[in-house]
Write a structure and sequence with these properties.
CATH architecture: 3-Layer(aba) Sandwich
Shape: globular
Mean pLDDT: 95
Helix content: 25-40%
Oligomer: single chain
Distance between the termini: 26 Å
Bound molecules: coenzyme A
Number of strands: 7
Strand content: 25-35%
Number of helices: 5
CATH class: Alpha Beta
Radius of gyration: 15 Å
């Protein structure tokens, strides 16, 4: 991936988010709900925008864009409330762009923004144990596994453990 850019997520991005949230397999190990129709995506996007509009302590949500402006995915980071300066990141790339270093380029950019803000001391992330692409990705970025939450992820009547990762911002 040569370069990517970020724009702030807005209601015009419904087609892009639909490409993520209507992918049942890709949503399985995320906190995003699988949504089969664009109408449902529109409603969920409105709720998400309202949630983030409440002046919460967060980075993003950002749309990851290719050089041609294409919607490639979403990413962001939220204060997790556990301690001042501790933020949890999340990331979701469109399936047809997997394996092209989009997540790597985007999350490195996100981490740079977090570092430059001066308000982030520790970045955390969680990955479902069966979501090997996600936890391998975190390890490649330099995150260390700090623990495991038993039965930390529930979807479609099933339960999985989650790995916890963290990386100090220095
Ligand atoms: C996890 C995800 C973000 C990876 O995005 P991506 O753009 O394909 O990742 P990259 O191309 O930047 O890969 C970087 C590293 O991640 C790991 N990785 C990515 N895909 C992998 C796979 N299928 N199997 C094993 N490791 C994988 C590798 O370590 C890879 O480095 P390498 O190519 O040098 O081996 C993407 O699969 C995705 O969006 N999944 C659905 C959403 C999700 O699960 N999000 C996480 C929970 S919030």
């Amino acid at each position: 991936m040569e370069s990517i850019g970020f724009t702030n997520l807005n209601l015009d991005d419904v087609d892009g988010v639909y490409s993520l949230w209507s992918d049942e397999g890709a949503t399985l190990f995320t906190n995003f709900k699988y949504l089969a129709t664009k109408d449902e995506c529109q409603q969920r996007l409105e709720k998400m925008m309202a949630f983030y509009g409440q002046n919460r302590d967060h980075f993003g949500p950002f749309v990851i864009r290719g050089t041609d402006g294409n919607f490639l995915g979403l990413t962001g980071g939220d204060a997790d409330g556990s301690a001042p300066g501790t933020y949890e990141i999340w990331y979701f790339v469109r399936r047809d762009y997997w394996g092209k270093k989009v997540a790597t380029t985007a999350v490195q950019h996100l981490l740079g923004l977090m570092k430059n803000s001066g308000r982030v001391k520790l970045v955390r992330a969680e990955a479902v144990v069966d979501n090997e692409p996600s936890w391998r990705f975190l390890e490649k970025l330099g995150f260390s596994r700090s623990g495991q939450i038993l039965a930390g992820h529930k979807k479609n009547g099933k339960t999985w453990d989650r790995y916890c990762y963290s990386m100090p911002v220095i």
